[in-house]
Amino acid sequence: MRVVNTSTVLILIVARVSFGLKYDNLEDFVDMVEDNINKALNYTISKDNSDILNLSSSTAKDFGTFDFIIIGGGAAGAILANRLTEISEWKILLLEAGGLPNDFTKILGLSPYNYFSTRSWGYNSTSQKHACLAMKEEKCSLPQGRVIGGGTTINAGVYARGHPEDFDRWSNVYGNPGWSYEEVLPYFKKSENAVFEPRDSDYHGEGGYYTVDINAVKLFKPLFNEKGIDFIDDYNGKYQNGIAQVQMSLKGNERVSTYSAFLENFTSRSNLNISLHSFVTKIAINNATKTAYGAYFVKDGVNYFAKAKKEVIVSAGGINSPQLLMLSGIGRKKHLKELNIPLVKYLPVGKYLQDHILFLGLIVRTNRIFYNQTMAEMLKLYEENQRPLMTGFQVELVSFTNFGRNQSIRPDIEYIISTPPPSSSQFEIFFGIKDSYMDPFNINTSSDILIYTCLMHPKSRGSVTLKSNSPLDKPLINPNYLAEDEDIETLYRGVELILSMNNSQILKNYEAYIVDVEYPNCVSYKKSSKEWWFCAIRQFTSPIYHPVSTNRMGPDPKTSVVNAHLQVHGMKKLRVVDSSVMPELNSGHTTAPVLMLAEKASNIIKKQHNRY
Ligand SMILES: Cc1cc2nc3c(=O)[nH]c(=O)nc-3n(C[C@H](O)[C@H](O)[C@H](O)COP(=O)(O)OP(=O)(O)OC[C@H]3O[C@@H](n4cnc5c(N)ncnc54)[C@H](O)[C@@H]3O)c2cc1C
Ligand SMILES: *[C@@H]1O[C@H](CO)[C@@H](O)[C@H](O)[C@H]1NC(C)=O
Ligand SMILES: *[C@@H]1O[C@H](CO)[C@@H](O)[C@H](O)[C@H]1NC(C)=O
Ligand SMILES: *[C@@H]1O[C@H](CO)[C@@H](O)[C@H](O)[C@H]1NC(C)=O
Ligand SMILES: *[C@@H]1O[C@H](CO)[C@@H](O)[C@H](O)[C@H]1NC(C)=O
Ligand SMILES: *[C@@H]1O[C@H](CO)[C@@H](O)[C@H](O)[C@H]1NC(C)=O
Ligand SMILES: *[C@@H]1O[C@H](CO)[C@@H](O)[C@H](O)[C@H]1NC(C)=O
Ligand SMILES: *[C@@H]1O[C@H](CO)[C@@H](O)[C@H](O)[C@H]1NC(C)=O
Ligand SMILES: *[C@@H]1O[C@H](CO)[C@@H](O)[C@H](O)[C@H]1NC(C)=O
Ligand SMILES: *[C@@H]1O[C@H](CO)[C@@H](O)[C@H](O)[C@H]1NC(C)=O
Ligand SMILES: *[C@@H]1O[C@H](CO)[C@@H](O)[C@H](O)[C@H]1NC(C)=O
Prior knowledge:
- The protein is of the alpha/beta class.
- Helix content is 25%, strand content 20%.
- The chain has 16 helices and 24 strands.
- Helix 6 packs across helix 16.
- Its cofactor is FAD.
């Protein structure tokens, strides 16, 4: 535990070398941050895409001919653009709907404010029946990156690959040769530059472009240890299950995105053409031969067409990749017919959507003051690489836990432990919570610890569908969170485990306890009964924005959209490389597997074109 007072701050300033964001003086830095926060608080999320897209009826101007066109410069697209331009004879066009990140995005601890900016697509789910009931209109807020780097430019930065069993299942259960853990591990390592110690070095890369670091204290590790959950140094190493300090996409004090890691230093490659503010509205397909040959996009209100000689690669993310395929005539027959979109290929696009969801509502209240700084003070600490703004959502610890306590079985639950927690008003804003619903929590940001309980392997699956045949409309996202009973049972078991810690020694040491919250709307259930907790969970749920499986990978075109080489079934020169191809969720967060799959896809592509 560290209580920061003035004298320690001074010592730290002298002792630490500071990296990253350099402003002439602290005041300018604070002004920049406060300006961005104020803009976010005053930002109106557009109901449709008209804030970045002007459709015009003029004929498309020729943007030229390229070997590959990559649609979306997010987590996956940025890596592909880097790796494919390693072949100097290949000309690559990267089309990204968003623009460049600003300095504000580099501060992981303030990442949620980016949801309320041009850098997010600003999605909500459809009204949910079984979860997110405390959210406005029962819609879960579902931000997605709309900026180069995609999710990695606005996300919380947690680097957690998952369990070996996850990838073995991609291979064995879903029938995708080449994707077992043993076969994908080299691609996790390829991107990585792990700089934290101690770590299981056999499992990490060094000298890759994507830096991974740890910046956390170990406050509540013993709490889990008392329950027989082991401390582990490195959950991306030999063993995943246990409690550990969170690994972050972090270099010095700055966020690492796929833009900063894979593109920023490579823009001078003469065979790489990055076109920002370029919203792709349709993939050009020869229907007779089922061959993709280009992309239509709108940039600054002008229509363009770019031609692809070798391939079109869709990397628009878990929501927008299925949207774009459907707008281009690839999808479910009935749905496309309803919207008057001529069918090119019948595939289950948008089906099988899965997402990680967590319970927001467990607070540990202590008698200590861990953090009590003004924004200016926190930013000063940040300049010296000090918490609390170093990690997304101020996450310190994560615990991957399976109820069988067996390292060879993947975890059921991830606990995400944040200090300091967001304030009640930040909660309301970040998660879109209904007015007054946060009142019973009365969060104390100086002394509370928040434990989020996250379901790793939901059984519920939902869908992404189109509202209309126009790219101006945002897609309809129905994740069906907690629709399957097994999901809420598992989350509840996760909550029970934390509740059983209420009388533990470590909490006693801090004169701490788990706050007994009077969750709104649960009065009709017996206090603290299972039904009462189900009521609480169904209300205070939020996704952690990992939509996957909407173009899932598999051998059968009836139940999957791409094959194990990520080629769209029954189509030529068309691939999908992004989170949408994951057959199911991993036991972690989704950035790391997307980095892996983009690295692997780059090699597959090079091999298939005899360049490897
Ligand atoms: C708020 C938030 C927090 C998250 N926190 C974490 C975390 O802590 N740890 C973690 O591991 N993962 C986290 N994730 C998830 C992670 O960021 C995503 O899984 C990952 O970015 C997905 O990569 P992708 O390449 O599939 O899509 P994205 O990274 O979303 O990239 C898709 C890109 O395509 C562009 N695009 C979309 N449609 C079009 C179009 N029609 N034309 C042109 N361009 C288009 C988008 O603007 C975007 O840049 C978080 C995500 C979000 C949104
Ligand atoms: C918020 O936006 C409104 C209307 O656009 C404007 O009048 C107001 O000054 C803005 N407030 C801040 C704090 O920027
Ligand atoms: C999502 O919900 C929030 C909160 O209700 C609202 O402000 C926002 O406009 C909604 N977004 C869309 C795209 O409808
Ligand atoms: C769309 O066109 C209108 C009218 O020309 C303009 O005011 C607006 O800024 C444009 N929007 C975008 C996103 O280009
Ligand atoms: C990218 O392609 C466009 C259209 O062909 C061209 O105008 C532009 O100069 C190219 N940019 C680079 C950096 O090659
Ligand atoms: C980009 O290049 C600079 C200068 O060579 C180097 O210091 C930096 O580490 C590079 N960044 C990445 C992400 O490789
Ligand atoms: C594409 O071809 C199929 C026959 O293979 C036909 O049924 C369909 O209508 C065509 N679609 C378009 C968009 O022309
Ligand atoms: C927060 O908790 C600390 C430590 O117990 C206490 O001193 C402080 O008064 C509390 N703040 C509020 C607003 O309740
Ligand atoms: C936090 O700091 C402020 C300003 O220094 C002080 O007024 C307040 O009492 C402090 N709160 C706690 C809980 O220490
Ligand atoms: C752990 O699970 C594996 C796979 O189910 C099983 O083979 C093994 O016996 C279990 N080990 C323990 C210690 O329970
Ligand atoms: C935890 O224990 C304290 C007493 O130490 C009690 O007041 C509180 O209600 C308990 N919390 C829960 C969630 O049961």
